[in-house]
Structure formats: structure tokens, C-alpha cells
Inverse folding.
């Protein structure tokens, strides 16, 4: 398997065409990234809990339709699938209201983490949303311990949502996570988690992080690698919905690393990271031009055609 993405998969209710109406779309940051990677032709697995309800069944079916291996196939009766209601603003930006007290995603346990599966993947990817409470938090740390043990690359998306938990609680978890991480995604709005942009190189040395990608929205992204930093510009497109755009970007970035044969940090170079960012920017640029998260994710053919224009 090329990558395991773990954490939340949920339902995004995005605004419909009629006033005060919503359209049900599958979503959730690690699931979005997982399907984005699958659409680039790579072998993916999703590790997360879904509720035994109509929404959970829809999400499981979505994974299967996208040829993602469902690593927790049994649906839980202990909580319903998490729901997110999306509010859109001019320019495609959005905010979220979550229904999760708790949601099924937070019920992932360390027992759900298969050492065999971790040992047979190339990258483990996760984010902070699924680490906001136990038992899912400790399941994530259990998976990261196994990934380190087996020499696998670990990708992490800070992905802070203030409606889910406080900055102080989230930062304590992120601080604990950073020593495991090889590839870190952080937005320009989340730089306070690492002490600001100017402190990124020092933070990387302290934690042994190989690559940090700072996302800059429509402006593209900035990478930090091996003492070098550089901004790779985004694409000027008409954005209608930014839901899932960051995940499309990160999924594209990780997919390109995998397609370039990256298995360890020794396989990374400035050129490889730059090319992966270009691929990720194209993936995100295509995604924002359509409504919804997962339904808007592009394929490898879409991305390569976009880059060729």
C-alpha cells in the first residue's frame, strides 16, 4: 500500500441553490486527501471509524467506489457519523459548524491500528482534528509509534478547528506530535503553532522534520527543506468552494512524492519537493472550481492536463 490516511471522515453539508438548503457531500480532511491520492492512481487505505447510520454507509461506499481500502470496515453503533455544516463566503472561503458530541470518528482505538498494515505502507498521514479527544488521540500516537518503528514517512496536517477544541489544548497535542513528523503541512493562519514563520527552520531542527509546507491560499505555498525556502505560486482560477481545497493540495503533494519514488527522507530533494508543490497547487486549483469536497477532487489526468496548459 502506498499510503494510509487516518482520522475523520464525515458529512459536509454545503449550501444548495435554494435559500437555507444544504447538499450532503462526503468529506473530512484525511479522507479527502486519501481519495485525492487514490485518484492519482495510487494504492490507499483509510483508517477511521464510521457510524452505523445512513451517513456512515454512504461514506464507506464512497471509499470503496474510489478504490480506497477500508481499514475499519465494521460500522459502530456507539455514536453517529460526524456532521459539518459549511457556510460559504465571497471568493469561495468557508466556515464550519460541527455536530460531534461525540462523533463516530473519535471512537477509533489503538486496537484498530494494525502493525501489519503500517509495516506495509510507504506513508502514514494524519491531522489534528482526529486527535482532539481519546481514544482516537492515542490511536493516532500508536500508529505513529509503529510508523517510526518500521521507518515509514509520517505526514501531518495541523488543520486547527477552533470550534472543536481550544488553541492551548491543540498546541499541546501538536507539540507532542512534531517529533514524529517528516512532512508537515501548516497554513499561514496556523503559524502560531510553531512560533511564527521565522522560527520554522529552528523548529524543524528541534524535531527532525524534513519538509514544512506553509499553505498561502490562492497565492500558492511556501516550502522549507534542507536550509532552503521557496514560494511556488498558485493558479488564478474562479473559486466557488474552498471546501477540500487544502486536502486536494496536500493529497496532490503526497501523491507526487509517491509517484517520484520517495520512500524515505533520503529520497527528497529541492527539485522533488518543488515539483510536488506544483502538482499539489494544480490539484487544489482544480478543486476550488467545483462545489463540494470529495466530488470536486481531480484525477491525475486532470492535473497533468491542467499543468500542461
Amino acid at each position: 500500500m502506498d499510503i494510509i490516511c487516518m482520522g475523520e471522515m464525515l458529512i459536509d453539508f454545503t449550501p444548495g441553490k435554494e435559500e437555507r438548503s444544504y447538499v450532503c457531500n462526503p468529506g473530512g480532511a484525511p479522507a479527502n486527501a486519501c481519495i485525492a491520492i487514490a485518484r492519482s492512481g495510487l494504492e490507499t487505505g483509510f483508517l477511521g471509524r464510521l457510524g452505523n447510520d445512513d451517513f456512515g454507509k454512504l461514506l464507506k461506499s464512497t471509499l470503496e467506489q474510489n478504490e480506497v481500502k477500508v481499514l475499519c470496515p465494521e460500522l459502530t453503533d456507539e455514536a453517529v457519523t460526524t456532521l459539518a455544516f459549511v457556510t460559504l463566503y465571497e471568493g469561495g472561503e468557508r466556515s464550519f459548524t460541527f455536530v460531534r458530541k461525540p462523533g463516530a470518528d473519535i471512537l477509533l482505538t489503538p486496537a484498530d491500528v494494525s502493525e501489519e498494515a503500517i509495516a506495509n505502507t510507504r506513508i502514514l498521514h494524519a491531522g489534528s482534528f482526529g486527535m482532539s479527544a481519546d481514544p482516537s488521540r492515542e490511536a493516532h500516537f500508536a500508529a505513529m509509534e509503529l510508523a517510526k518503528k518500521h521507518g515509514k514517512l509520517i505526514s501531518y496536517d495541523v488543520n486547527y478547528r477552533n470550534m472543536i477544541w481550544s488553541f492551548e489544548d491543540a498546541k499541546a497535542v501538536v507539540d507532542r506530535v512534531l517529533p514524529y513528523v517528516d512532512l508537515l503541512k501548516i497554513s499561514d493562519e496556523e503559524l502560531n503553532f510553531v512560533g511564527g514563520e521565522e522560527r520554522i527552520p529552528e523548529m524543524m531542527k528541534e524535531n527532525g522534520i524534513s519538509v514544512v509546507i506553509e499553505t498561502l491560499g490562492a497565492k500558492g505555498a511556501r516550502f522549507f527543506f534542507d536550509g532552503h525556502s521557496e514560494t511556488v505560486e498558485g493558479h488564478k482560477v474562479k473559486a466557488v468552494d474552498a471546501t477540500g481545497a487544502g486536502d486536494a493540495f496536500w493529497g496532490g503533494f503526497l501523491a507526487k512524492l509517491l509517484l517520484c519514488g520517495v520512500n524515505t527522507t533520503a529520497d527528497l530533494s529541492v527539485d522533488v519537493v518543488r515539483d510536488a508543490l506544483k502538482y499539489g497547487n494544480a490539484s487544489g486549483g482544480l478543486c476550488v472550481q467545483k462545489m463540494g469536497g470529495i466530488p470536486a477532487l481531480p484525477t491525475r489526468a486532470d492535473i497533468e492536463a491542467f499543468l500542461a496548459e
Q: What stands out?
A: Residues 3-308 form a domain with the UDP-N-acetylmuramoyl-L-alanine:D-glutamate ligase fold (CATH 3.40.1190.20). The two ends are 32 Å apart (CA to CA). The chain has a mean pLDDT of 94. The CA atoms of residues 195 and 203 lie 8 Å apart.
